[in-house]
Structure formats: C-alpha cells, structure tokens
Model the fold of this input.
Amino acid sequence: MRRIHTPTFVLMALVMISLSVLTGRLEATGWRSQSPTGHPTTLLSVWGSSGSDVFAVGWYGRILHYDGTEWSTMVGVTTLILEDVWGSASNDVFAVGQYGTVLHYDGTAWSAMASGTTSDLYGVWGSSWNDVFAVGPHGTILHFDGVGWSTMTSGTTETLFHIWGSSASDVFAVGTSGTILHCDGESWSAMSVAIPGGLSDHLTALWGSSGSDVFASSWMTGRILHYDGFVWTAMTTLAVSITDLWGTAGSDVFGVGENIVHYDGVSWSGMAAPPFGNSLGAVWGSSGSDVFVVGERGIILHYDGTAWSTMVEGAGETGSLLDVWGSSGSDVFALHSNQLWHYDGAEWSEIPISASTGLWAVWGSSESDVFVVGGDYTSPHEILHYDGDQWSPMAVSGLGTLLGVWGTSGSNVFAVGDFGTILNYGGATWSPMSSGTTNRLQSVWGSSASDVFAVGLWGTIVHFDGLGWTAMASGTTNHLYRVWGTSGSDVFAVGESGQILHYDGVAWSPMTSGTTTVLHGVWGSSASDVFAVGESGTILHYDGLEWDAMTSGTANILCGVWGNSASDVFAVGEWSTILHYANHMPVADAGQDQTAKEGTAVTLDGSGSQDPDSDPLTHLWTQISGPPVTLNDPTLARPTFTAPVVEGGADVVLEFELRVDDFTVASVGDRVTVTVEPRTFADVPTTHVFYAFIEAIARHSISGGCGSGNYCPDSPVTRAQMAVLLEKSLRGSDFLPGPATGAFLDVPPGYWAAGWIEQLAADQITAGCGARTFCPDSVVTRAQMAVFLLKAKHGNGYLPPNQTGLFDDVPIGHWAGRWVEQLAAEGITAGCGPNQYCPDSPVSRGQMAVFLTKAFGL
Done:
C-alpha cells in the first residue's frame, strides 16, 4: 500500500509544519523535483489490483508498473513527488503527492485531476471508484464522489499521514500528536486511546483486516497500536522504526521501515531479508505469498511466502551532487564527486567524464569554456576543462583538494582549496598565488579581476585587489562554505550554524538567517533576490529586507544553488537531489470596466487573475482616482463598495488597480474603471428602501418605469404588468413573445400586454382568473405573487414542501400557504412584519423589484 515519508521525510514534514506555524508566512510552490534520466528514484508507495498489476510511485513523479514479469516505467504527467497510490481496479488508480497533486489512471494513460488544494497530500484510499479519500497537512481531508474532489471537515489542524477503511462508513485516518479520526460515512470525529497519559506519538502507518481489527504505528517511537472495534490500545514498542503496515489478516501483518517485521497474531518478530542498505517505505501484497516492498533509491523486494528476494537493486550510497552552474537555463551542469550531469532545458543526462579523484566545483565563462576542479587531500590537484566538444585534463601542480572555482573570463580563473591554496589561470597555465592562510578555502567569487573574495574554515575570508591577497575580519569562527555577491559592496557568505555574513563594501556583518542548520550554497539574481541552501533541505530566500524559509519538499542536504534568472533556479544535493525553481510572475486581471448607479453596491472582479505555476495568490486593490470609496476588504478577489452619490450631477469615474502576489513575486498592476451614473428614476432617491432593487431591474431592462422618468414604487402591480415582468426576468430583457391569438376573452389581441399574458399562460405559470379570463387590470396579491414567482423560477410542475405554520396570518391549510413559506425559505421575503406575511395585500412595484431581484439573482 503506501508509506508515509521515509524517516527523513517525516522529519521534514514536521519541520515545515512548525515553520508555517511560527512564521505565518507562505511562499510560492515554485520548487519542483527533477530526476536525471535513468537515475534510481526513491519509491514511496506500492499498490496493485493483482500480483501481475502492481504500481509503485515516488520522487520526481516516477511511476513504475509490474506486469507479473518485469517492472517498467510508465509515462507520467508530473515531476512532483508522489506520496501514495491506491486503486479500485486496474483501470481506476489514484496517485497523490506534492502541492495537491492528484493523478488518475484509466487503464490507458495517467492524467491530472483538479484537487482544489495546494496542500501536500500524503495518503489516499477508497471503498470504491466513487468514494475516495485523500489526506494531508492542517487536517486536510478530500473526498472524490466520482465527479469531483471536495473538502471535508476533519475537526483537526494536525497533519494527517495515512487513511484506511473497511467500508464507506468505517474509515480511519491518523497523524501527528496521536491524532486518530473516524468517519461513519457522514462526518469525521476524534477517537480516544486507552493509554495512560494519552498519546502524543506521530502516527504514520495504518492498516486493518476489518473495522474491529485495525493497526497503527509511529515511525518516531516504534509503538504499534491496535483497535478491536471498541478501543485503541498499545500492542508493543518495537526497536526499529516502521513506516508502513499491510497484511492479509489480523494474524498475518507485515511492517516495513528500518527492517521487515511480521505479526502472527501472537507477537511481532523480525524477518530475514536480503541486505538492502536502504530504508523501506511501503508494503502491499496480493496474498501472504506475494508481497512487495519498495523504498529508498528505488529498491524493490518480494516475498513468496517463504523468503524475501530482491527484484530491483537499490542505488546504494550514490553520494551527493556538490555543485551546479550553467551558461543558460538550457545548459546546466551538476557535479557529482565522480560524475557530471547536464540539463538541456528538457531533461538531465550523464556526461562521460574521466577523473582520477573526486570533483567538487564547476564554473564556466560560456557553454564551450567550462572548468571543474577536485582532487584529494593527499593527491595532486585535478582540473578538467570542457571546450564545447570534449573534456580534457589540465596541467596543474600541487597537492590537495580544490573546492571552489570562479573567474572573470576563460583567461582569468581562480581555484581554491586545501591548505589555503589559491591558483590562477591566465589562459595558458595554472600558477599558485600566496593567500596568506593555511586554512582550507571552500569557495571563491568576485565582482571583477581586482575584487575577488575567498572564504573557508574558521571564518576565513581573504580578498584580492588585483595585486595581492589580504585577510579580512569576518567576525566569526564558523566555517564558511560559499561566497557570492551582486557587486563588490553587496557580498554574501554562508556556512555553519545558519551563518550568513554580508559585506557592504566596508565591513562584514552577520545577518539573521532564522536557522541554525549548516548552509552550503548561496546565489541570487539581484540584491533583493538571493537564495541560500543547506542541510535538512533548507532553502532560504532574501528579498532585500529579510531571510525567509521556503518549502523545498526534501530533507536531503542541499550543497549548491545557481540560477539563470529569478524564476529559473536550480539546487542540488545528496542522493543526487535536483530541485528546480520556476516561479513566474502572476498576472493580475481587474476585470471589465463597469457602469453603476449612484448608491448601489458595486463588485470589483479580480477572479480572472492567474499564476503560471498555479501558486495560490493574494489580492490587493487600491483606488487610483475618483471620489474616495471604502472597499469592504481590499484583499479579496471580489471586494464590494457602495457607489458614491452624485445627486443628479454628471457621471463620475472611479479607477482601481489590482496587484496579485504569489508570496514571492508580485504582478504588474491591472486597472479597471467604474463609471457612476445618477439614479434612473426621479421618484426613487438613493435613500429609498427599495432603491437598489429597483435599479437592479432597470439595469437588466426588466422595467423602464411608469413614465416621465418615474418608477411609481408605491403603485400596485397589475396582473398584466406582472406577466411582462416575470417573462423578462425569466427569459431575458431581449425576449419578445409571439403575436397574441385571443386566448383570454378579456385580453384582446391588440391589448398592450396580450402577447406576454398568453406566453405566461403557455408556460403554465397561470391559467388566468376564471374561464378564459385573465383579469389583466386586477392587482396581484402577495399570496398570488408567491405562486407566480416560484413557478416561474422552478418550473410549472414544482410543488413546495408542506406548510409548517411560519406566519400567523397564513394558517395551515391556506390555499397558498406552502408557496408563501417556500418564498421565505429561499430568502426572497421575510414577510411584512413580525410573523406576518399580509397574503391579501397588493404587491407594490417597489416590492415587485425586490421579489424579482432575489428570485432570479438580478
């Protein structure tokens, strides 16, 4: 089935949860995992419909399939981490992962689904194709009903790692701080545990054989819990960490993690397994003699009921990608200690390279002039050069590792390393320079040939002014691992204990990084766009004012960072981790220019704003010109305000600007104008109780008033007027009925509203007031209007629920009682007073405007 994050991922998830709580800051979800072609990928979950139809998912969007004979890579649709996989059949498989990713396989191809969330999803399970659940951080629970995904109320803000159920009405979810939830098919509720002192373990695995035989475990403590249908109790605490559970019965349960364990119904015991050297993350089987286990670096094990065997070898200790540099976004090099990977803008591939020792750093002046340096503490320096066609060793003398390289051009390159070594390449040969220190130098960077900085162990910083190297006061004894800057007066150095130093052209001073983890790399596109990377997947961003943590999606050590632009950044690290940041500027859309009447409610519409990376957006509206108005909330996508009163004067124009922000990059502003016109009718001032509703039907051309620029709001509505108003509200102001045929004896074909009256009758909203009569000039009562409105809105066959006695003056049994109460239930009217409806009172033209506006959403 699935595994929650392997140990490092569990820790990373908890770290990021803490960061979000402490800082309250979000960031664009711009970091995405990338995988070198052919490189082993950690697998995080496994599930199958049978022993010859098994799916495994993991990092970089990798999806594998086993057909009973061999494993093969499937064509995926994402490079994001996939956390879990589950299906109801071979042609109905779901995979979930980073940033709300949900994929579906229909037996032919994988496709992305709209989940409605950008939160990571850690677990997925369902009882059928139209009853699927997914869980994630902050109590996130999504449900798929066969049509779309929707959010469920979980009642918790804890992170949920795993979900499983015995049926649609018996579903369990577990997560941080001992959280156990249960869904009875309708709602979720918290479950208690019978453990003295309660339970605070972070529960990361869950499986059961039935609703009264459920197991859960904690990776951090090794504790295993059991539910017997009545209460959760502690079974045992194992000496090894368990990340996933699966079984065929309550007496045949497998647990995987740091080892493989088995429960036989009496006790838990370790199982003999082939050496795997990697953490195991997930387990699933088609039977007790056909069990699959997947884990870190792509390992896959199989159990045949007798012994475990290796189906796919894990990658073993692959080491780290130590540095990254490129000449452009489609020409990027990532350096392994004995490998070099190249990115062409579409995929990563290995470049054959021959090095006698480990390689540590890469830099170039162009795509056909690239240098890599390395060596070993007791071995000769090693430098290789790429001319755009092939790699060749360069002649260099001296011992020790070279750890950093940088230059102003291909004929002026600096390399630094062990014992304070600094070498310079002048275009022909490498020659040593006197650094004035014997401390190891880790990195070198400069703003020009006469302004070069090198940093190293014990806070060492030396500077080259074009003539010689001199020591600088760093103010720290922390090891410094990387240096970079935008100019000679804006230089950053990073290192141990979250150390970040800044040089302003005069002196080095410490910056507040917000972390104590070791930082290994720094790079930026400008003084207000700087990235630092380090251990535990740490990525920090500096906006010119402060450093903030970003979510990397990994807990691996990150060793280097480089970018082609602010929206095209690469970070590399251990286990050949490659992350790509491709955050693009969002686009604000302030909507169409509008016209509104004075004193009416106006809604600005920024809902069309978009982010190319599908990042969540914040909105900020600002009034640019016109009489000042107050927005109800300028941070809403669709804020409202009341148009200013112009008192019969000329039109006024208000201009507003919208900017959207993806928490990292703000958009260019987009502007919209609102032209405010004087009121439509002279006898309906802005203070009139029905003003907004009367203006609404006028705006939709439902009514043009009663003549001479007036509306006559207090005049009663006749049945003929009602026919016109209802049909226009129902069909639109452009609708014109066909010619009258004389259906009613009291409505001759030449009567002004004859066509409208006959259309109302044809729609079966009314049959008239008697035998072939309509009574066109009779007033409409409030009881009659309830029937007319609801039939027009819901159709002539509509019948409201039975009457309950809502209004004192509409007793149960009243001919229009159910219609009157339904009108109130739909919020179209609240009556004419406390518990009163006034069913026999005539409907005024002002009241009719309210009825029409509310009933038809005008």
